[in-house]
Write a structure and sequence with these properties.
Elements: E1 2-5, H1 9-15, H2 46-59, H3 67-83, E2 86-95, E3 101-111, E4 118-124, H4 147-166, E5 172-178, H5 194-201, E6 213-217, E7 226-228, H6 230-249, E8 256-260, E9 263-265, H7 267-273, E10 278-282, H8 308-323
Parallel strand pairs: 4-5, 4-6, 6-10, 7-8
Antiparallel strand pairs: 1-9, 2-3, 3-5
Helix pairs in contact: 2-4, 2-8, 3-4, 4-8, 6-8
């Protein structure tokens, strides 16, 4: 994931015309706490999601063109086939900013495919080819393992798919796993999200028009907090408010910060530009020099960063949103 620009809180408040400040007080920080008013329809298992992060990392760094990428693609397709009503594999070639031709695969796993009333859930599954943010310059040409960026988002969506197999939601749901997101350069916004750009031009269903989309990016690291990403607020404020309110109702208000965060160039920008409201649930850290967790685009983005409790918080919140449409 790419860092387009990161705004300090005071600037962000002006840009948004003043968002609600963080609510104080009563929200529990426990990942196991749930809404006092209603039990969840499904119980998201953070440990199972953690195991799916580990499975991806066991393949190695999933850089397009690598053996690890090919093996992970086979596993993703098999897993979606096991859980989903239908699975579509998009195979394509894309050209990178440095004139490499990549063979990529996007995956779409769908539930209730005949239902025209749908929600889109997405994450990228590839890894960055270079650890160009590593504190050791000697490691800048090594690939990133991508436990948090982006195996965490994929793992949450696969665990949601497992739950939806056993307890079908009433609404249609599409899980989109996109490739070649992280082969970009910071000065070139269009060099990121190549798999999503391909899907946007070639959607898996003609005229695809879900209610909204939710992108998960870097949703598993210890110490994570999810503020309201500015471009999500600009394009899809009502969806941001819906998800953050659900997090509050689910007992996760201390993880989902009502204050605005930075503005990120990510897959959701492409989705919004094709006319689908889409938000980004992403861990932004203004105290960090990069604006993200310390392992971002380094060789240390490994399993040691991943907290099953954080995976639980995000997965349960998204599950509660999906199952609220009954």
């Amino acid at each position: 994931m790419r860092f387009r620009f990161f705004l300090l809180l005071s600037i962000a408040l002006v840009a948004l015309g003043g968002c609600k400040s963080q609510q104080s007080g009563s929200s529990s920080s426990s990942a196991s706490s749930q809404s006092a008013t209603a039990a969840p329809v499904v119980d998201f298992d953070g440990n199972k999601a953690y195991d799916m992060v580990k499975q991806q990392c066991d393949f190695g760094a999933r850089v397009p063109g690598s053996a690890a990428h090919s093996k992970c693609a086979e596993w993703l397709e098999a897993t979606l086939n096991e859980y989903c009503d239908t699975t579509i594999v998009q195979e394509a070639q894309v050209t990178t900013f440095d004139n490499k031709t990549l063979n990529i695969k996007n995956f779409v796993g769908s539930f209730n495919p005949a239902n025209g009333d749908r929600i889109l859930l997405l994450a990228h599954w590839d890894c960055r080819p270079w650890a160009d943010n590593d504190p050791d310059p000697a490691k800048h040409n090594e690939p990133v393992m991508g436990a948090n960026d982006a195996a965490s988002g994929v793992a949450v969506l696969l665990e949601l798919a497992r739950l939806m197999k056993d307890k079908k939601p009433s609404i249609g749901v599409d899980i989109l796993l996109v490739d070649a997101e992280d082969w970009g350069e910071n000065e070139n916004e269009d060099s990121w999200a190549l798999g999503t750009q391909y899907w946007a031009k070639n959607p898996h269903v003609a005229g695809y028009n879900p209610r909204f989309g939710i992108l998960l990016d870097m949703v598993g690291a210890k110490g994570a907090k999810f503020s309201k990403e500015i471009m999500s607020m600009e394009y899809a404020r009502s969806t941001v408010d819906e998800v953050w309110e659900m997090a509050q109702q689910s007992g996760y208000g201390s993880y989902f910060d009502n204050a605005p965060g930075g503005a990120i160039t990510d897959d959701h920008i492409v989705v919004n530009k094709m006319g689908i409201k889409c938000i980004d649930i992403i861990d932004m850290r203004p105290q960090s020099s990069t604006g993200f967790f310390d392992g971002w685009h380094t060789t240390s983005d490994t399993l040691e960063w991943i907290d099953p409790n954080v995976l639980k918080v995000v997965g349960q919140t998204v599950a509660n949103v999906v199952y609220s449409y009954q």
